[in-house]
Amino acid sequence: MKEFGYRRASDVSGAVALLDADPEARFLGGGTNLVDLMKTGVERPALLVDVRELPLDGIESTEDGALRIGATVTNSDLAAHPEVRRRYPALAQAVLAGASGQLRNMATVGGNLLQRTRCGYFTDVTKPCNKRVPGSGCPAIEGEHHNHAILGASGHCVAVHPSDMGVALAAFDAVVHYETAEGPGESPLAEFYLPVGETPHLETALPPGALITGVTLPPAAVAARSRYRKVRERASYAFAIGSIAAALDVRDGVVHDVRLAFGAVASRPWRARTAERALLGAPADAGAFAAAADAELAAAEPLPHNGYKVTLMRNLVVAVLTQLAEEAAR
Amino acid sequence: MTTAPIRTTPAKGAVGTAHTRVEGRDKVTGAARYAGEIPFADLAHGWLALSTVARGRVSSVETAPVLAMPGVLAVLHHGNAPRVETDYIGILGKPDPTAAVFQHDRVPHVGWPVAMVVAETPEQAREAAEALVVRYEEEPHDVAFSGDHPGAYTLDSFMPAVTEKGDLEPALAASAVVVDEEYTTPEEHHAMMEPHAATARWDGGRLDVVDSNQGTGWVALELAKMFSLDPASVRVRSEHIGGGFGSKGLRAHQVAAVMGTTLLQRPVRVVMTRRQMFSLTGYRSPTAQRVRLGADADGRLLALEHRALSLTSTVHEFVEPSAGVARVMYDADAHRTANEVVRLDVPTPTFMRAPGEAPGSFALEAALDELAEKCGIDPIELRVRNEPDRGPVSGLPFSSRRLLACFREGAERFGWADRDPRPGLRREGRWLLGTGTAAASFGAGAGPSTAAVTAEPDGSFTVRIAAADIGTGARTALTLVAADTLEVTPDRVRVRIGDSDFGPAMIAGGSMGTRSWAWAVSAAARELRERLAPGADVPPEGITVRSDTSEAVGALAKKERHSFGAQFAEVAVDTGTGEVRVRRMLGIFAAGRIVNPLTARNQLVGGMAWGISMALHEEAVRDRATGGHYGADLAGYHVATHADVPRVEADWIDDPDPEDPVGIKGIGEIGIVGAAAAVANAVWHATGVRHRSLPIRPDRVLLADTGAPDA
Predict the structure, then answer these.
(1) CA triplet B280, B285, B286: central angle to 5 degrees?
(2) Which of A183, A200, B130, B524 has its CA 20 to 30 A from that of B23?
(3) Domain carrying residue A297
(4) At A42, which CATH number?
(5) What is the pTM of this model?
C-alpha cells in the first residue's frame, strides 16, 4: 500500500491548517472505515491528520434545550450517555445496532457521518464505480444490487449510505457543525448529503478541507418516545438491509407528532417526510401507518432484485409505529 | 465456553477425560507463532498480482516501472519464471495447476496469479504489485452456474460418479407418494481466520518451507515433484494452523515463494490477503441438486434418485460429490445417484468441511422432511421405517450404525414427542416458531501413517509425527493417546507435529487425521512400553521406536464405516422482516471412541454453528459481468456471528467397534452434516414455506408466500 505520513492535531485550527496545506491529506478519526479503504486501495492519502485527541469529545445541553454532541465522541460514549438515552432513545439504539463493541469504542460521530458506502463495486478497485472513478459506470444496476437503493438513486449510482446513527440523526433534525480555514459553518443534515444525480462522487455539502466539529440535536419532545429497528442478514455485525428510526406522540388516539427516517434504502439517511405529513392528525392505527408508508414508498424505484425492500420498509413502519402507539397507550 | 483443568493423575487413563489444549496457553497469550509471523534474517516479501479478467491471455507485463519502485527486487511472471512439473499424481491425484504459477499466458478466471513482485518490505511489494500494469487479450467468459447448464457431465472422484440399481421411472410411477424437488446451495468459502502464508528458503542444499497447511508431508511431496527435487531434500514445517477446513494444501503462495527464494537466494515470504484467498485457495462449489423420492403410503422408499451438479474450473476437475450421501443413508429397490460437474471460467473449487455430505445432506434430508409431511408421518418415524441393514449401494455390512439410537436420545432430550407436526401454528410476539430434524453421516476412514516415540533419559517421552493440528485439538488428543498407551500421565508426554522430516503421515482431512495418527502413535508407544524393562536405564540418546500402519490400515476388513448423528433445531421467523433466528440446536452423534470430550464437543458444536451459517448466511456472490466476486471479504461474505449461534449442544452415545484397533471414527466434519437441513426443516415448520435454496435470506423469507396468518 501507499506510504503515508501521520500527524496528530492538537487543536481544531491546526488540524484544519494541516489539511488545507495538502489536498491528499485526510482526517483520521477512529479509522474504522478509512483504514479499510486504504488497505483496499480505494483511499490513498498522503497524510493522515489524527483528530481523535481534539477537545471535541463532549456531550452537553445548550441553553436553548438542544443537545450538542462533539465530533470525536465515540459511538460507545454516545450510546451510553444518559441524556441521549432519555431524550433521543432511538439514537442510542441506532448506534448500538451498528458494528461491534470494539469498533464502537473506536468510531467517532464525525467519522460515522462521513463513512463511505459498503457497495461491493465501490470497495473493489478492479471494478467500475462512478462514485470512485467518475464516468466509469455503475455495474450494480445490471449486477449485484439486492442491498442497494430503492429511493433517490440515479442511473449513475444506486449505493446506500451505511450509517445507523445517521438515520436517527435525520429523524431528529440534526445540524452538522464544521470548521474551515475561513471559519465555522453548519449544515442541516437534511441538506448535508447531496442528491446522487450525475455526481455520485460528490457526497456531502462539506466544503473541501472542512473538519466536522459536532452535531446539534434540537429539542423535540416526541423524540423521547422513539425506536430504532434494524434488519440485517445476520443477527449482529452487519449493515442494514432496511432500518427505521421512528418517534410518535399520540393524543386521544390521533397522531400529534411523528418522526420517521429510513436506513439502507438511499444514498443518504432517508427522512420520510411524505409519510410524516400523511400521519399528522391521522388515527394512530395500523391502517393509517400502512397508508403513510405506502405514500412514502410510492416514490420507490426498485431494481430487479431489491424490490423486497419496499415490503420490508412498509412492514417496519407498521410494526414500529404500532409498537410505539401501544406503549403510548399504556 | 467451559474449561477443564489439566489432569495430571489419570484415574482410568487420560483418554475420555476433558483436557484443555496443550498449546492453548501459547495460543491465547500470543506466544504461538503462525507461519506469516515467524522471523527470518534477510527476509524478502513476495506479493501476488492477480488477473482482473475472467478469460483470455496476458499480452504484456510492464515490469520496468515497477522494478524502479522503492525496495523492489524482482518481478516474476510467465515470461521469466522457472518451469515446473505438473504432470504427476500426488496423494490427492493430479495437481490443480492453479498452484503452478506463471507457467503460461492463459488466464482461466478472475484472480489467476499473473505475477509476483518481491521487495524488501511487504508494503513495498504490495504497492508495486498493485501498480503493476498487466495487459490482456480478453475473451468472452461464462461464470453462470445453473442446474440446467448444457455443459454438465458426470465425473468420478474418490467415489464413482454414478450408482444405479433397479428401474427408477416405473418405481416412481408405482409410488403412492412422490417428492420431486430441486435444491440449491451457493458458493461457500472456508473463511478460516489465518490466511495462507509461506516462507521458503534454501538451507544447506535443502528447501525449507515454513507454512500453514493440513499436511507437511503432503505439501513437501508436491513441492518435490513440482520442482523435480529429491523428496528428502524438501522440508516443510507447519506448527500452528489458524483453521484449514480443506483449503490448506499446495497453493500458489508456496510455489511462488519457492520460485522467489530460488531466484534471489534469500528467504521469501508470501502471504495472501483475504481477497486473494477468495480466488486462490479453493471453495465449495455451488450445487443444484434434484431429489426424487417415491414411497408407499407408509413412507417406505420404493425409489430414490439424487442428482447433484457442481462446477469446476477449466484447468482442473473437482467434483463436490453431494449425491454420495444417499449411498450410505437410505435404500430403495430403485436407487440412482449421480455427481455431475460443469466447467466454467471460475477458480477451482476444493474440499471444504464435509465435501459432498454438507450440501448433499441439505437436499436429501430436506426432501425426507417433505416426504414425511406428504405421508403424514413423523420425520423421525420416517427414518426408522427406512433404516437399511446394509450399505444401500455397496451391500456391505456397517461396522456400526447407531443412527436410530441418536434419534431416540436426541428426541428425548430435545422434547420432540410433544411436537405438533402442523406448520405455521406457533407464535410468540412477532416470531413464528418451529422445530426440525435431520440425519447426519460421515465416512470413518484411515490413512497409513508413521510415528516415532522416544523414551527420554529424564523419564519423559517424545512423540514425533507429521500430524497437523488445524484447530481440532489433534496435538492434545495424541498426547492423551500416547500417555495411556505408555501408562504415564500426559504431562510426561511431549508431542511434536507439523514437520515433514518426521516421516509420512495422513493429512488433516476426511475426518481421518486423529484416527490415523493415533493408530501410528499407539502402535509405536505400545512397542516401546514393552521394550522398556522395568528399572532399566535409558541411554542419553533415548530409546526410539518407530511404527508404520500401512499394513494394518490395508488389512482392515471392508465394511461401511461411518459416523452417524441426529440434528435438531428450533427457529424463530419474523415473516414481516424475513429474519430467521435459531433458538437452540442439539446434535447427538455416534462417532466411535471420543478421545478428548472438551475438544470433541468444540469440533461438533463448531460444525453445527457452521451449519447455521450455511443455512442462513453464507453465500459468495459472483458478478456476471466481470466474472469476479462481489464483496470478497468478511464484511461481504457473512458467517454466523455469536448472536446467531445460541444454545448449541452436542453430545454422543457409545459407539464401540470391537474389530477396530483404534475405535476412533473422527469428528471433524459430521457436525455440519444435516445441520442446515434441520434449520431449513424448522423454518418450514414455523412458516409453512419450504426454502429449497440456501441461504434462507430475509428477502427470500419476505417474498415467500406464508401459510401462516398475517402478522
Answers:
(1) 135
(2) B524
(3) 227-329
(4) 3.30.43.10
(5) 0.97
